[in-house]
């Protein structure tokens, strides 16, 4: 069993501060932590000063089923005995210098078998037969278990914790439910058709990370196991548990709320990281130190993506592209699903429908737009298909238990499944994205990995047999949940390599695991055009962000069924304020490009798209902060307001960074929403009307179909582009407007990250700008937040909008080496909004603006 690791204790020396015949007490050289390890029964208690933070195995549910030899039947024993006699006869011939008569001239002398050479089945005590121990059946499928049952499990007790979050992916509320007495939360990546809501069933991805929060403390548990895993959650009272007496001794008698969490995995080892906080920001950083942070995406991928299964042909793609221009709608990316490939042979193009893919891509590039094509990890079994032939000849497919290539049924029909756990396979796959290998591809073609759970239509639960064989002798049951991550990794590596390591990749994947954030974006899978699916996308994306997957979104409009116009409008409004913004639809649904709706609905969607593109500098800065620090982009309110218990259960609204609060309208026919504005002493400004509201309060806000309730927190500065063009690349050098929302103390601050938007130069050459804007004492100051960065840019500050300001007598601009200059301004006394026009200063320079 692997050791339980406390991440906060990394690099901190532990010393023995006490011991007896059954326990040892360890103290950290730095910090107030103490660990009490008890041998029989095994238990680990983690204390901070005299407070018990967490106990491991306090309920005695530790389980570790080791590999074992199957029980040998009488007939097997007879066969083994006869085989042993025959071996002795052969050895006799060998010792006499004779040849084995059954082997002819090629026979070799045999050594006398030693005890250690006996067949494994006969070594040790035969194990007792158990139902399903050595083989299980599921419908028509059979799962052999050559090592017998190998489950592992462990319980964790969290005194003082009532609210736990994480362990995505589930279509459920943000706060995890008590599952004791019912079905535990399941983590097992599956291709689920029309998934159920508010259910602990497994979905497409799995991240075995659970976060616990109370007003004073945050903790995390990272259960590093890629096998099928179940998480059972129970609510308890610390004063009534096995270690209640210990709590009474340490903290006095009384009852303390407690959450107990039991982890169970089908196989593997117990490898657990305890994330000790103490704040939620600390937990995010500790987890990021183990699995990495969100990859910084190229700027275009934060724009709007138009997709469906499927755009018919090149003419259809170009018509959709032109439709956005004709209707004055921004769009960055058009997507192609499985029908674009020749007979669903990935890395190819259907010759009748996409005969000139390079010409199509060049046309999109002239509009500064991109194309995404699907490349799934199942390969059509076809002797004339180069991809299949190479994989078969190189032996890079997943194998069956008898050593032959594993084949399953998926979109192309009979398909092989590349073994992405093999580094050679991943390198081969990455090389397939070179422009020579992927014929018809171009620099503005990017990739979508779907079906990477993996999906096997004729497999158990629509996935691979658990006894399939992977590189290194691992069974599929051991690595199932990490398979999709390896697909995502190899594809991202391929897009990086095709540019010589210069260009940042964009890859969307459906299946994921801990660490998938390093390779691109994810989404919530095949949702449905129903109001409840619109509503559930908020807690689903919030849960993903809490475990590092910040670049997430949901299919706008719903994948299945046809949305009514009101639902589609509301989905665009929500999608515009979620990190990954893509409309997508099933093959059997009606076309739903925005201009196909009645004009009043099209106008509202145009407005939502405009809000998205206006905020792209803000979005890009948030993704950089997530990349740099591991903090989520889309945040539950409790992350920013950890002591406000009202926020702990809220999952119909959220924060973007620490600046914007969004409450999407997710009910049919809604005329108003209840918005909770948190924060003692905070002020919140409606971004449309600039009306000021004080927190904390629950506000009833009337809405119309065109309303998107969004508030900017007083004390923040948000950068925007005010000219919405056809794509983000057309806007990247446009001037910036700063929206400065003042706190009650008359202060505000914010950041802006800029680079070229698409290369790794921000890392390799330090070619970036990170500007800090601070407002205090009636002065707005721009300074460098990271002096190591340098980036020449034509972007200038076009306007400054100060919300919550009085009317000054004069406004003066100061820049280094230049005399003071007066700025023109306009003040609205009704909204207390002050607009400073055309400061005309480069965004990279240091400057200050003074209100006098």
TrEMBL record:
Pathway: Glycan metabolism; N-glycan metabolism. Its main location: endoplasmic reticulum. Residues 295-622 form the Glycoside hydrolase family 31 TIM barrel domain. It is found in: Endoplasmic reticulum; Golgi apparatus; Melanosome. One of its GO terms (biological process) is N-glycan processing. One of its GO terms (cellular component) is glucosidase II complex. Residues 97-141 have a biased composition (Basic and acidic residues). Residues 23-232 form the Glycoside hydrolase family 31 N-terminal domain. The keyword Glycoprotein applies. InterPro entries: Gal_mutarotase_sf_dom, GH, Glyco_hydro_31_AS, Glyco_hydro_31_C, Glyco_hydro_31_CS, Glyco_hydro_31_N_dom, Glyco_hydro_31_TIM, Glyco_hydro_b. Residues 96-141 are annotated as: Disordered. One of its GO terms (molecular function) is Glc2Man9GlcNAc2 oligosaccharide glucosidase activity. Gene3D superfamilies: Glycosidases, glycosyl hydrolase (family 31), Golgi alpha-mannosidase II. Its EC number is 3.2.1.207. It catalyses: N(4)-(alpha-D-Glc-(1->3)-alpha-D-Glc-(1->3)-alpha-D-Man-(1->2)-alpha-D-Man-(1->2)-alpha-D-Man-(1->3)-[alpha-D-Man-(1->2)-alpha-D-Man-(1->3)-[alpha-D-Man-(1->2)-alpha-D-Man-(1->6)]-alpha-D-Man-(1->6)]-beta-D-Man-(1->4)-beta-D-GlcNAc-(1->4)-beta-D-GlcNAc)-L-asparaginyl-[protein] + H2O = N(4)-(alpha-D-Glc-(1->3)-alpha-D-Man-(1->2)-alpha-D-Man-(1->2)-alpha-D-Man-(1->3)-[alpha-D-Man-(1->2)-alpha-D-Man-(1->3)-[alpha-D-Man-(1->2)-alpha-D-Man-(1->6)]-alpha-D-Man-(1->6)]-beta-D-Man-(1->4)-beta-D-GlcNAc-(1->4)-beta-D-GlcNAc)-L-asparaginyl-[protein] + beta-D-glucose; N(4)-(alpha-D-Glc-(1->3)-alpha-D-Man-(1->2)-alpha-D-Man-(1->2)-alpha-D-Man-(1->3)-[alpha-D-Man-(1->2)-alpha-D-Man-(1->3)-[alpha-D-Man-(1->2)-alpha-D-Man-(1->6)]-alpha-D-Man-(1->6)]-beta-D-Man-(1->4)-beta-D-GlcNAc-(1->4)-beta-D-GlcNAc)-L-asparaginyl-[protein] + H2O = N(4)-(alpha-D-Man-(1->2)-alpha-D-Man-(1->2)-alpha-D-Man-(1->3)-[alpha-D-Man-(1->2)-alpha-D-Man-(1->3)-[alpha-D-Man-(1->2)-alpha-D-Man-(1->6)]-alpha-D-Man-(1->6)]-beta-D-Man-(1->4)-beta-D-GlcNAc-(1->4)-beta-D-GlcNAc)-L-asparaginyl-[protein] (N-glucan mannose isomer 9A1,2,3B1,2,3) + beta-D-glucose. Residues 630-718 form the Glycosyl hydrolase family 31 C-terminal domain. It is an enzyme of class 3 (hydrolase). Pfam families: Gal_mutarotas_2, Glyco_hydro_31_2nd, Glyco_hydro_31_3rd. Keywords: Disulfide bond, Endoplasmic reticulum, Glycoprotein, Glycosidase, Golgi apparatus, Hydrolase, Phosphoprotein, Signal. The keyword Transport does not apply. It comes from the Eukaryota. Belongs to the glycosyl hydrolase 31 family. Catalytic subunit of glucosidase II that cleaves sequentially the 2 innermost alpha-1,3-linked glucose residues from the Glc(2)Man(9)GlcNAc(2) oligosaccharide precursor of immature glycoproteins. Required for PKD1/Polycystin-1 and PKD2/Polycystin-2 maturation and localization to the cell surface and cilia. Heterodimer of a catalytic alpha subunit (GANAB) and a beta subunit (PRKCSH). Binds glycosylated PTPRC. This is Neutral alpha-glucosidase AB. It comes from Gorilla gorilla gorilla. The gene is GANAB.
């Amino acid at each position: 069993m692997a050791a339980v690791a406390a991440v906060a204790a990394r690099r901190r020396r532990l010393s023995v501060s006490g011991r007896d015949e059954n326990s040892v007490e360890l103290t950290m050289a730095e910090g107030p932590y103490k660990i009490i390890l008890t041998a029989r029964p095994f238990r680990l208690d983690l204390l901070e000063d005299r407070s018990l933070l967490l106990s491991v195995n306090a309920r005695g549910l530790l389980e570790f089923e080791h590999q074992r030899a199957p029980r040998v039947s009488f007939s097997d024993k007879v066969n083994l005995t006869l085989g042993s006699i025959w071996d002795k006869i052969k050895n006799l011939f060998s010792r006499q210098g004779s040849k084995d008569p059954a082997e002819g001239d090629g026979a070799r002398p045999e050594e006398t078998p030693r005890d250690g050479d006996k067949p494994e089945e006969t070594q040790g005590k035969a194990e007792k037969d158990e139902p399903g121990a050595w083989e299980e059946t599921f419908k028509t499928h059979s799962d052999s278990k050559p090592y017998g049952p190998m489950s592992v499990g462990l319980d964790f007790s969290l005194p003082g914790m009532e609210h736990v979050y994480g362990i995505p992916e589930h279509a459920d509320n943000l706060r995890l439910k008590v599952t004791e007495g019912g079905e535990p939360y399941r983590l097992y990546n599956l291709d689920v058709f029309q998934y159920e809501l508010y259910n602990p069933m497994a979905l497409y991805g799995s991240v075995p990370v659970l976060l616990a929060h109370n007003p004073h403390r945050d903790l995390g548990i990272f259960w590093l196991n890629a096998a099928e895993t179940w998480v059972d959650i129970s609510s308890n009272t610390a004063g009534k548990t096995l270690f209640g007496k210990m709590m009474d001794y340490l903290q006095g008698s009384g009852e303390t709320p407690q959450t107990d969490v039991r982890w169970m995995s089908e196989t593997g080892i117990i490898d657990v990281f305890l994330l000790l906080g103490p704040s939620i920001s600390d937990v995010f950083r500790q987890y990021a130190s183990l699995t990495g942070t969100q990859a910084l995406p190229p700027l275009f991928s934060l724009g709007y993506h138009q997709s469906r299964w499927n755009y018919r042909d090149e003419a259809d793609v170009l018509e959709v592209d032109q439709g956005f221009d004709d209707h004055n709608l921004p769009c960055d990316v058009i997507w192609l699903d499985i029908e674009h490939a020749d007979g669903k042979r990935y890395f190819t193009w259907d010759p009748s429908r996409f005969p000139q893919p390079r010409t199509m891509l060049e046309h999109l590039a002239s509009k500064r737009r991109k194309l995404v094509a699907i490349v799934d990890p199942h390969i059509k079994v076809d002797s004339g298909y180069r991809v299949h032939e190479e994989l078969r000849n190189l032996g890079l497919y997943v194998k069956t238990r008898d050593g032959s290539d594993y084949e399953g049924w998926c979109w192309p029909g009979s398909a092989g499944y590349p073994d992405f756990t093999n580094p050679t396979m991943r390198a081969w796959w990455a090389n397939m994205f070179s422009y020579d290998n992927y014929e018809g591809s171009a620099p503005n073609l990017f990739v979508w990995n779907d079906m990477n759970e993996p999906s096997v239509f004729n497999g158990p639960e629509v996935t691979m047999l658990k006894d399939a064989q992977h590189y290194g002798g691992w069974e599929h049951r051991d690595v199932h949940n990490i398979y999709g991550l390896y697909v995502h990794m190899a594809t991202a590596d391929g897009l990086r390599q095709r540019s010589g390591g210069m260009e940042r990749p964009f890859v969307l994947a459906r299946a994921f695991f801990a660490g998938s954030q390093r390779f691109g974006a994810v989404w919530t899978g095949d949702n449905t055009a129903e109001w409840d699916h619109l509503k559930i996308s908020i807690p689903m994306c919030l849960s993903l962000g809490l475990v590092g997957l910040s670049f997430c979104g949901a299919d706008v409009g719903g994948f299945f069924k046809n949305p009514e116009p009101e639902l589609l409008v509301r989905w665009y409004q929500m999608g515009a304020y979620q990190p990954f913004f893509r409309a997508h639809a099933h093959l059997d649904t009606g076309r739903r490009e925005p201009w196909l709706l009645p004009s009043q609905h099209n106008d509202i969607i145009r407005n939502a798209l405009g809000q998205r593109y206006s905020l792209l500098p803000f979005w890009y800065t948030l993704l950089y902060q997530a990349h740099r620090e591991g903090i989520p982009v889309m945040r539950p309110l409790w992350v920013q307001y950890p002591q406000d218990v009202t926020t702990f259960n809220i999952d119909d609204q959220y924060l973007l960074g620490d600046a914007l609060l969004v409450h999407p309208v997710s009910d049919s026919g809604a005329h108003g929403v209840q918005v909770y504005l948190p924060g003692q002493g905070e002020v919140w400004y409606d971004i449309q009307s600039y009306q000021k509201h004080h927190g904390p309060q629950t506000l009833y806000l009337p809405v119309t179909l065109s309303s998107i309730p969004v508030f900017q927190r007083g004390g923040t500065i948000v950068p925007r582009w005010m000219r919405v063009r056809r794509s983000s690349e057309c806007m990247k050098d446009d001037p910036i407007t700063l929206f400065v929302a003042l706190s009650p103390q008359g202060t505000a601050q914010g950041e802006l990250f800029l680079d070229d938007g698409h290369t790794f130069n921000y890392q390799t050459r330090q070619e970036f700008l990170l500007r800090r804007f601070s407002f205090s004492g009636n002065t707005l100051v721009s300074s460098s937040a990271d002096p190591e960065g340098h980036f020449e840019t034509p972007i200038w500050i076009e306007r400054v909008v100060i919300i919550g300001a009085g009317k000054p007598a004069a406004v003066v601009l100061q820049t280094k080496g230049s005399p003071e200059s007066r700025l023109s301004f306009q003040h609205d006394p009704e909204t207390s909004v002050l607009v400073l026009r055309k400061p005309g200063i480069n965004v990279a320079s240091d400057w200050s603006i003074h209100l006098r």
